[in-house]
Write a structure and sequence with these properties.
By secondary structure, the chain is α+β, with helices and mostly antiparallel strands. It has one domain: Gcn5-related N-acetyltransferase (GNAT) (Aminopeptidase), CATH 3.40.630. 35% of the residues lie in helices and 27% in strands. The protein is built from 5 helices and 5 strands; from the N terminus they run βαααβββαβα. It has a 5-stranded mixed beta sheet, sandwiched between helices. β2 and β3 form a beta hairpin. It is globular and about 35 Å long. The model has no long low-confidence stretch (mean pLDDT 94).
Amino acid sequence: MRIASSAEEVARCFDVMRELRPKLKSAEEFVGLIEQQQSEGFQLAYLEAEGQVVTVAGFRVQHLLATGLTLYVDDLVTSERARSRGYGKAMLDALIAHARERGCAMFSLDSGTWRHDAHAFYFREGMRVSSFHFILPLQ
């Protein structure tokens, strides 16, 4: 797992992230959004295979009243062309190891209700549903 620390590295992650977040229009827009989030503690991690980015994860480490120091995954996606090759598991394992190294008490993520294959993967990896995540669009 590598952490994207330059605009060039972030831009290389765009095509994979766009599979999860199709509202993203361009690599330039993506880089700007990631840089803004990085100023708030967000980190963008990626895995490569054969010189291509195959898995991307956006995450942050934060203190929460409910769970203490928590590594929260905002985004986790493996390119459709690279699925079922162990990259998602490698990223998940690396993120969990990173959380442990940082002294986190909890590892958590949200997953869209329509992502049934992702849910099956998370269950296989020992994760459980702990709560509902409610949203209210304000615009």
